[in-house]
Amino acid sequence: MTLTRRELLIRTGAVAAWATVGGAVYAKHRGVFDGPPQFDRSAFPEPERSAAAVLRAERYSGDLEGLVADGLRLVEARVRGRSVVLKPNFVEFLDDHPINTQPALVVAAANAFRRLGARSVVVAEGPGHRRDAEAVAEQAGLLEALDDARLPFVDLNEAPVVRVPLRSRYTGLPALWVPTVLHEADLVVSMPKLKTHHWVAVTLSLKNCFGCMPGRVYGWPKDVFHVRSVPNSILDIAGVIKPSLAIIDGIVGMEGNGPLLGDAVHSGVVVISRDPVAADVTGARLMGMEPEKIEYLMEAGRFLGQARSELIEQRGEDPERLAKQFAPAPGFEHVVA
Questions:
Q1: What pLDDT shows up at residue 33?
Q2: Contact in structure between 233 and 207 (CB atoms under 8 Å)
Q3: What pLDDT score does 96 carry?
Q4: What is the pLDDT of residue 7?
Q5: What is the pLDDT, as a whole number, of residue 32?
Q6: Helix locations, the chain, DSSP H
Q7: How far apart are CA 171 and CA 234, in angstroms?
Q8: The Cα angle at residue 88 between residues 112 and 283, in degrees rounded to 5
Q9: What does the alpha-carbon distance between residue 86 and residue 113 come to, in Å, rounded to a whole number?
Q10: Rounded to the nearest 5°, which phi and psi values hold at 175?
């Protein structure tokens, strides 16, 4: 069912009120997952062995399209004939801070999917900090790059939505309103920046799914999910979006006080996987972090993908050889390897 704007505004008030009353119980968890499984095993198969490709990319120039295409082949992504939505990370624009997925990589990924026979490719984002997604995309140079490449852009904060029941129970919400463009896509590709995060240690392909949630339903900066705790919300949102692929922009990442005010780190890598959890585990290792100490990531490994490093086949470059020690976000010094 697609809602009209009027219906959404009415339901938005109901959701906001529910979050205020019922969210307090779930907010207490703060990402400490020590109880029984909070998901339906019938909806989430037991994670199996996965593969993650680490590709060396020293700069945002050269044949990035070929590099992404090679990575997609390395992880045996099935692309031909499928509709693809690329979900980069364009949360805010601040000079001298590497916050957003680089537009050159977004366009290169889109062209790689086209080269491999995708039926359609769309770029979509719903920033949490700014109501005007196109303004952020324009400031960051994304819109111009998309126009040049003849790629459509969808504002996920304003797009039509459909109600999707949750099969996980970390936030206590029974369902989420998901943009129809994501729900109907054959492949949703999470394209985050390799960054630290002051609430959850690292923000990678799973956390990037926050931007899939429409602001006109869940507020700014997606208030409903902050009330119910960010780690819990990461799990429920990723569980309903189920990104088919992850492409992590680690050419230049961010360390320290991420996801907005940290410092640039030149890592010179791109990570690609059909398993977003495996991609994030690999990304954490590339940042010099111990994935086993990142609670939401380990919980995601129970049902969203493979979190055990020994069960993730590393293809392409060796992540241990290319790892750089990122300064952790304040309060997360304990996750440093």
A1: 66
A2: no
A3: 85
A4: 42
A5: 55
A6: 5-27, 64-74, 103-115, 133-139, 142-149, 180-183, 215-218, 223-227, 230-241, 276-286, 295-300, 319-322
A7: 9
A8: 90
A9: 10
A10: -160, 165
Beta carbons within 10 angstroms of residue 111's beta carbon: 18
pTM above 0.85, yes or no: yes
In the numeric block, which tokens belong to residue 204? Answer: 């990678």
Q: What is the DSSP string of 166-208?
A: -SB-SS--SEEEEEHHHHT-SEEEEE-EEEEETTTEEE-TTGG
Write the DSSP string, 69-111: HHHHHHTT---TT-EEEEEE------TT---S--HHHHHHHHH
Domains of the chain in sequence order: 5-12+57-335 (3.40.50)
For residues 15 and 218, the answer to whether their CB atoms sit within 8 Å is yes
Handedness of CA 68, 85, 217, 175 (dihedral sign): negative
Report yes or no: 244 and 274 within 8 Å, Cβ to Cβ: yes
The pLDDT value recorded for residue 312 is 98
Q: What is the C-alpha separation between 107 and 70, in angstroms, rounded?
A: 15
Q: DSSP secondary-structure letter at 269?
A: E
pLDDT along the chain (337 residues), means of 10: 41 37 35 73 95 98 98 98 98 90 98 98 93 91 97 97 97 97 98 97 98 95 92 97 98 97 97 98 98 97 97 97 97 96
Q: What is the CA radius of gyration of the chain?
A: 18
